[in-house]
Amino acid sequence: MSFQVALDQFAGPMQLLLELIEKEDLDITKVSLAKVTEDYLGYVNTHDVPSHELADFLVVAARLIYIKSRAILPLDPEEEEEADALAAQLKLYRQFVDATVHIDSLIRSPQTAYDRPRSFVPSSTKFRPPDNVTAETLGASFSDLVKRLEPFFALQQTSLQRVVSVQERIKQIHQVLIDRARMTFSDITKGSASRIDVVVSFLALLELMKQGLIKAVQMSAFEEIELRRID
Amino acid sequence: MLKAKIEAILFASGKPVSLKSLAKVLVVKADELEAAIVEIKKEKNIDDSGIQLIDHDGSLQLVTNPAFGELIGSLVKDEFAGELTRPQLETLSIICYRGPVTKPEIEQIRGVNCSLIIRNLLIRGLVEEKEDSVRLQPVYIATPDFVRHLSVHTLADLPEYEHFHADERIAKLIETATTPD
Amino acid sequence: MLKAKIEAILFASGKPVSLKSLAKVLVVKADELEAAIVEIKKEKNIDDSGIQLIDHDGSLQLVTNPAFGELIGSLVKDEFAGELTRPQLETLSIICYRGPVTKPEIEQIRGVNCSLIIRNLLIRGLVEEKEDSVRLQPVYIATPDFVRHLSVHTLADLPEYEHFHADERIAKLIETATTPD
Question: Closest chain C residue to A113 measured between Cα atoms?
Fold first, then answer.
């Protein structure tokens, strides 16, 4: 009679982060964030995150990788802030998990107030034309509507261009390396349509390294990353 | 508590409810029911109550105190006469340009729930509901009265009709109405 | 008599009526109206009343006592049932507790883009969009229908409402936490 809530899916990247941290019994700090980075990447890698949400998961993945990479180096204050910001955001999210629990239990409860069917609806439908409607105002109204929808049409277009998933990218990179034995990271990202795409490639690389299929070499910071096939 | 339950049932049903079905739903005997109804009448059927209980032909119904008939009447008139609000006008334009169109389709285009607006347009006789054998749900079109009121021979005479009626992007948007995410 | 008139108008409309239009129709001052409403709430918002009063977003609506939800639900159709996904539930909770709230604020808490989810909630009639004259962008609040479904007399009756709604630290976090571009 009431709402049903499907529980078997993640509400978003924040929920995933929170669950990983709570599973390890950690407090929400930047140290914890660095600690769960691998688990987070592993999840994104192995689960079929819906394509329209993948971008959001990857943005958080990128922030985690950044925090983790800095965890081993002394931080300058500005970089410190980025780590604190994500921790603060996660704490905020944590608070609202409780709010969600409240709303969930209220909508599951059989207690529900009902309103009353409209009583003073005239019994017979009689033609009551409005004063302000002509063919022109109708046309103008529809035209305004189409204009208002323009940004939405654009949004639909982009979500249709499905972000290449990490799994697909792993296959692609692996295939290329079977043929070529070595390549650079910029070879892979050359065709990237967006930053999300670059992050996807990076995640795919991490996974290939973990599986022991490739080796990545970087001579010094900000230098080109070279990838080699492990035979 | 019986009194409160009777009140709630009569309120939510919005039409006369027979004593028989009340007794059945509430699982009470006729005399208990009678006693509770007498109590409700004592409370409500006084000048100082906005809602009253009428008892007709073995059925009960909650109604507004007739003394406030004029006050209520003026509210009704306002709602179903006069100018259309912007959301009403927009919904009407969708029905004129894209009709026959279903409620979920209209809602996909407008991005908001349109139940109340469509109801209002129906009552004012500006649009009508038809069964659609393909979509298997009601579709809405402009009434002949309204088309005449617009002083056009046919809706195709509306400004930019061809263009708006056939807009592919809107057609695509409408498609998503049949596939809930 | 004012109390009875308010009751009659709310009963007859069957939908939320704003305090503003009540004051206008009844030709009374805001404080007189307020006092009468306090009285009505005292009378109706008790266990032993079948009809109760919801006060949401500056509007009033009469509804059935939520305690009889199962009884009434077995008699009338509930249009609002259906499945909510986790992301929808989360977004809805944020809107209930923090509303009126902007889209960037919701996204700050959830860490994800919420455009499609909000659109879906709008179409289902669970939340509505309003213009905010201070923030100069759309803000979102729960619809009267959803408040009714939550079985609270007003959103401030939600558990821990004060904590989530007015907490300064939360407000500051929303403001200062960096947006994940």
Answer: C66
Interchain contact, C116 vs B181, CB within 8 Å: yes
C-alpha A188/C-alpha B65 separation (Å) is 77
Contact flag B115-C79 (C-beta cutoff 8 Å): yes
Walk me through the domains of chain B, giving residue ranges and CATH numbers. 2-74 (1.10.10.10), 86-178 (1.10.10.10)
Residue A170: pLDDT over 80: no
> CA-to-CA distance for B142 and B121, rounded, in angstroms?
10
> A152: Cβ–Cβ under 8 A, 6 or more apart, which residues?
B111, B173
> CB-based contacts of C22: which residues, under 8 Å, 6+ apart?
C6, C9, C33, C60
pTM: 0.82
pLDDT tens, residue by residue, C95-128:
999 999 999 999 988 888 888 899 999 999 999 9
Nearest residue of A to residue B156 by CA position?
A135
CB B17 within 8 A of CB B10: yes
Q: Is C46 on the interface with B (CB under 8 A)?
A: no
> Cβ–Cβ of C68/B14 closer than 8 Å?
no
Neighbours of B79 (CB within 10 A): 16
Are A115 and C61 within 8 A, CB to CB? yes
Tell me the shortest Cα–Cα distance from A139 to chain C, in angstroms.
24
Across the interface, whether the CB atoms of B1 and C25 are under 8 A apart is answered: no
B133 vs B121: CA distance, rounded Å: 23
Q: Give the whole-angstrom CA distance, residue B71 versus residue C40.
A: 19
Dump strand ranges (E) for chain B: 17-18, 51-56, 59-64, 101-102, 127-131, 138-142
Chain C, 128-167: which have a CB under 8 Å from a chain A CB? Answer: 145, 148-152, 158-160, 164
Bridging pattern class, strands B101-102 and B59-64: unpaired
Residue A83 · residue A74 · CB < 8 Å: no
- In sequence order, the 6+-apart residues with CB closer than 8 A to the CB of B73 are none
Q: What angle do CA C67, C68, C73 make, to 5 degrees?
A: 130
Provide the pairing of β-strand A214-218 with B101-102: unpaired
pLDDT digits (tens, 9 = 90+) for B8-43: 999 999 889 999 999 999 999 999 999 999 999 999
Any chain A CB within 8 A of the CB of C7?
A: no
Cβ atoms of A18 and A125 closer than 8 Å: no
ipTM associated with this complex? 0.84
In this complex, do B11 and C129 lie within 8 Å of one another by their Cβ atoms?
no
Closest CA to A67 of A46, A47, A86, A45: A86
- pLDDT (tens digit per residue) in A69-102: 766 555 556 666 777 888 888 988 998 999 999 9
B59 touching chain A per CB within 8 A: no
